[in-house]
Amino acid sequence: MNIVIDGIMVSLELLNAQRYRNMEVIPVSLNRNGHKDYLTLKRGISAGFVEISECEVSTVGTVLARNKANVPLVLIDGDEIVGAKQNRIMNRSLIVPPLTTMEVSVSCTEQGRWHYDRTGYRTHFDYSDIAADFSTRRNKAEDLFENDSCQSTVWNSIHDLERKTSFKSRTSALHDNFINLRSKLDEYLKHFHVEYGQRGAIFIINGEIKGLELFANPSIYHDYHEKIFRSYIMEAIVDYRSSCGCENFYGFLREISCSEFRPSRRERIGRHLHFANDCGFGAALFDGCTLVHLNYFSGGKSRTIRRKTGRRYGSFRDFVDDS
Known about the structure:
- The chain is of the alpha+beta class.
- It has a domain of 226 residues.
- 25% of the residues lie in helices and 35% in strands.
- The chain is built from eight helices and 19 strands.
- The strands form three sheets. Strands 1, 2, 3, 4, 14, 15, 16, 17, 18 and 19 form a ten-stranded antiparallel beta sheet that branches. Strands 6-7-12-10-9-13 form a six-stranded antiparallel beta sheet. A three-stranded mixed beta sheet has the order 5-8-11.
- Helix 2 runs antiparallel to helix 3 and helix 5 crosses helix 6.
- The longest helix is centred in the C-terminal third of the chain and has 21 residues.
- The protein is globular and about 50 Å long.
């Protein structure tokens, strides 16, 4: 299956579906996507090559990323960092060049704190094994398609999650909500494994398509597998319904190629795009012709750019048999 993202063709290969309770996942591989190497946040912080810190003059919407390695660092949309004055998530995927320090756009995920940890003055952030939940990431993608800021949307999404889980964090921290449901999240997670060559997945919850995640190579995907899955599993837990089959998603993926694409502010490496179509909202990061990361979420508010014409979705079998 080929999709075209602002003129660049991306070839998808679907692998065998995996299921647990009300959640179904279709692992995805990519064909001919280049062989560039990138450092992930997880490996970079662990090895001491990457530091994320507050800016010299701290602001809610910006942090500093320092890449001390000789290879580019990739930061992924929705990735959480914890500590410093308050927890944050990345607003979009981007590449930090080797031996470079640069400002990174973020959103706060801990509205009730703006001070350093009492155990010590620590300007650096720590790695988190959590990414923002599906609803927060989807709402953020919708907001960023037309706006530069999504902070109020992120806070509202976290408050909505707390309402659904009947759990109130002392500082309204997204991270605490995941910790509260850790055992349930891990029970789902252990039923989904990484396939050989996997670079992403299509997520279906309660028989409804929720999203698509794609990464540059299997190594990056492996580092983000659990974080991305927990993001969608949270939705499966808080909106549990008996699953009755799978919504057809042939058209959902086909319409990526028919999206309206809007470029973001250009960074030193890479090209970032926000896009929207009849089915949902998403974003993609390219390094040359290499797709570094793509997320694509279903649903959201009606937009004037959306076509109102009817469309036919095919089944999963139609999709894999399609040439």
